[in-house]
TrEMBL record:
Residues 8-193 form the Nitroreductase domain. This is Nitroreductase domain-containing protein. The lineage of its organism: Bacteria, Pseudomonadati, Pseudomonadota, Gammaproteobacteria, Moraxellales. Keywords: NADP, Oxidoreductase. It comes from Acinetobacter dispersus. Belongs to the nitroreductase family. The keyword NADP applies.
Length: 217
């Protein structure tokens, strides 16, 4: 699909057809696109829980109760659901893992280039940790870059998607033991194909006009 047409037609799906499943090869393609999402200094502070079975989706839906119960059906009727998680800190060990992966991927022409990358990335982390004092927010911003990439890629692939921030974070963090893994849940994304009952599919897009959104310098 054309990129502009995708931007104008994709939307947050409100109801899924539980009988329609994303072909496995196409879903794996989406995961690979997600893995290649951009992030500041390639920090990649994310981890993604992938729910394909009904049992796995039910575990996610267990955090969609009370004020969030309206989101449960989206997860349960989706083809697949992802939980986007963000690291709660950046350790020296993780920075070293990133650096060695860069090296294995052939990104350094010599040892000097490797050490420059080491200093640059750790410098960014310490700047956000100690000077701006918003390292967690900076990391979560990167996770949302990955979210945007996935949503647009799904639209290009003809797959419907729903990002959801309406869930009990404490429950889902506990259900999957995220705190013990140095992670926290940031956003849930249901993927699949819309139901004929989805009212949002029939509504026109609404965006502010370009003169409000853009200042042309």
């Amino acid at each position: 699909m054309d990129t502009l047409a995708t931007a104008k037609t994709r939307y947050a799906t409100k109801a899924y057809d539980a009988e329609k499943k994303i072909p496995q090869a196409q879903f794996e393609k989406l995961l690979e696109i997600l893995r290649f999402s951009p992030s500041s200094v390639n920090i990649q502070p994310w981890h993604f829980l992938v729910a394909e079975s009904d049992q796995a989706k039910q575990r996610i839906a267990s955090a969609l109760t009370g004020n969030y119960v309206y989101n449960a059906a989206k997860v349960l009727n989706s083809s697949h659901t992802l939980v986007f998680c963000t690291r709660t800190d950046i350790s020296a060990e993780y920075l070293e893992q990133l650096l060695q992966q860069d090296d294995a991927s052939g990104r350094f022409k010599d040892e000097t280039a490797k050490q420059v990358q080491r200093a640059t990335r750790s410098g960014y982390v310490e700047f956000y940790r100690n000077e701006l004092k918003n390292l967690p927010a900076w990391m979560e911003n990167q996770t949302y870059l990955a979210l945007g990439q996935l949503l647009f890629a799904a639209g290009l692939e003809g797959i419907d998607a729903t990002p959801m921030e309406g869930f009990d974070r404490e429950l889902i963090n506990k259900e999957f033991g995220l705190a013990e893994k140095g992670l926290k849940a940031s956003v849930i994304v249901a993927l699949g194909y819309r139901s004929d009952t989805d009212f949002n599919a029939k509504l026109p897009k609404s965006r502010l006009p370009d003169e409000v959104v853009f200042t042309r310098l």
